[in-house]
Each structure stands twice: as C-alpha cells, then as structure tokens.
Amino acid sequence: MLYRLLLSVVLALSGVPLLDLRAQHAVVGDAVAEAVAGVVESQSFILGLVVEEFEAEIASLLNVRHAIGCASGTDALLLPLKALDPKPGDEVILPAFTFFATAGAVWNAGFRPVFCDVDPVTFNVTRETLEVRWTKWTRAVIPVHLFGQMAPMEEIGALARERGAFVLEDAAQALGARQRTAEGGEAAAGSVGDAGAFSFFPTKNLGGYGDGGLMTTNDDGLADALRKLRVHGGRQMYDHELVGTNSRLDALQAAVLRAKLPHLPAWTEARRKNACLYHGALAEVEGITLPETLPVNLHVYNQYTVRAEDRDRLRTHLQDRGIGSGVYYPVPLHLQPCFASLGQGEGDLPVSEEASREVLSLPVFPELGEARIEIVTDAVREFYGTR
Ligand SMILES: *Cc1c(COP(=O)(O)O)cnc(C)c1O
Q1: What's the rounded Cα separation, in Å, for the pair 5 and 370?
Q2: Which atom of ligand 1 is nearest to the CA of 204?
Q3: What is the distance in A from the centroid of ligand 1 to the CA of 345?
Q4: pLDDT band at 266 (very low <50, low <70, confident <90, very high)
C-alpha cells in the first residue's frame, strides 16, 4: 500500500512521456550489445548473413515468401513503386491522413499522388474512399494501416483486382497486426497486398537504433526486382538492368532488430493491455471518442489515438502535468504546400481534415504500466470534468 503510494508520487513527479525508449533498452541492452559486437568483429557491414537471417525471421513471422531489408520505411514504399515503372500521368491513390512519407514516396517514384479520404472510425481507407478517386490513370493504391490497425484488405483487394491495380500496404505502424480473412484464416499486415512496406524507425513497434526498413511480397519476380533496386539495379556489380538506388538495411541495424524481435509479441501484448486500460478508464468521459477496432482486426497500437473536443487545450492541460501526447497528423497531405499543384484543396477530404483537428495520441508504449496510465486518465477526466 505504502509502496504503491510512493510509486504513484514518484511517477507523478517524473511525468509520463509519450514514449520512453530507455525502458526497453534496459531490458534488451545486453543482447543488443552482444549482437552489435558480433557484427563489429565480423567487419561485414553491408547486407550479409545477419541481414539475411533477419529477413528470414520476418518472412516466417508474417508468412510471406520474401522479406527484403532496405534503408527506411520511406524507401520500402519507394522501391516497389519504382518497380512499377511509372509513365507520365500514372496515378497512385493514398490517404490524405497519413505520415508524409507515404506521399513523398509516390511523388519520388514518379507517380502523381491522388489523395483520398478515410473512414471516420478507423482513420483507414476503405473500398468506397478509394473508389471515388479512381481514374483511368490509377495504377496502384496504398492502404495505410494507420496507428497499428489494418485497413479492410478484403474489399480493397477485390476493388484492385477488378480494376487491375497494384496494392502496396503501408504497414510501417503495423508490424504484427493481423486480420481475419474471408476463408476464416488470419493474415498479417504486409502479407495481403502485392507488396508491403515496414519501418524500423525507433518509434515503431520494432525499432532499430537508427533508420531501417523492409519490403514484403509473395511475388518472386517483384522480389527479384526489389533486391536489385536496393543495390543500384543490378544483381551483379557493374551490371545494371534497372536504375536503382543505394537502400540497404545496415548489418548493425539488422543485428539490433534480431536481438529485439523475440520480445515483439510481449511488447504487442503490453500495448494492447494499455489500450484496454484506457478504454476501461475513459469510456464514460464526455468529450473524447476512443479508438475502435474492427471485429476482424488485431490492433497493435503503435499509437493510441483518441478524438478530443478542445484538443489543443487538452494537450496543454496534459503538458502542464508532465504528460506527453502527440498529434498525428496536424495537416492532411492534400493541404501541404508542396502538393498545392495537384489541385486538391480545403473541403475536398472532410473526414481527414476533421481528424487532423481532433486527434490526440496518448502514451501507449509497452513499459508504461498501470500507475502511469492512471495519471493520464485522471488528467483527461479532470480536464473534461472542469472545462
Ligand atoms: C514511419 C512511417 C513511414 C516511414 O518510415 P521511415 O522509416 O521513417 O522512413 C511511412 N509510413 C508511415 C505510415 C509511417 O508511420
């Protein structure tokens, strides 16, 4: 009892960060150091055995034929799009409510980004939101599994098959997320579309100690192209069949990720438990809307994102109490200055625009623990109780 009291006082004084990577490092630090030392000993830093082992482990975890490491989640989106060899005017439909990288990759691959709206409950694209943006130029669609919950892949896949478009899953926030299939089985994020893109940016559910990314596909031909594209477009040195780039997963990062991977299931469970505690404590609070999970989905909560009335004032209220929170994302992509020439403007994608004004992500990292969740939920309740 006294211990609990002391603990809550200490925690309240130290605040609640949005993310605390040091807590995780305290657990995995020794294993990571050993793995890194192994790479340093080998002096083999580019691709090689450690990267191949990591790729095989991810392929097996996700049940895909090919997992191909690359330099970042951004490049994991870029290279499959480059493999499609865009012609001038070719379009890719993607949500306006996502991280910038999704759109940047489309643009940099040589496609015209066409932004679509999202479902107000899940923040994900649906068949309907994609369909209204379809043109005869549409070559690919990018469902983003935002915050760790998969977009409805069955209906999106059906639409893409009917119209002959490529499906690239942006699974940067969704490593380990799963979805029930029509046949009654389960499919992992990144294993359903024609290709999938993952990021190991430190804030993702499996974070490296720097940048890193990975592409997935079940298509042998595409896998072959992606393996070339990440090393300047040739299978052998100085023999270039495609114009690729330099985008490899670093052996040091692969070693770190391999050391951390066995913990991923427990970390996912902890995130899910934290979400559950938030649900229990905040369900009755007037003024916020809690995230909902589609019945077919297993959500991995890279972010626990609510819609909040008076969002910016709530954020300040939390900040004053030492509680971190994040706004992902404050400006929908069709309203970014760099995409003004595409001609989509204010009012065109109302659900994305409203989401940008209302969303707030609360701390949900695995090591958060009940006592700190209580600090957060007390502060949220206090805000809406006294407003
Ligand atoms: C993080 C992220 C990316 C980009 O990953 P990087 O490794 O940072 O390049 C792309 N899409 C989404 C949805 C992301 O969250």
Answers
A1: 13
A2: 1
A3: 24
A4: very high
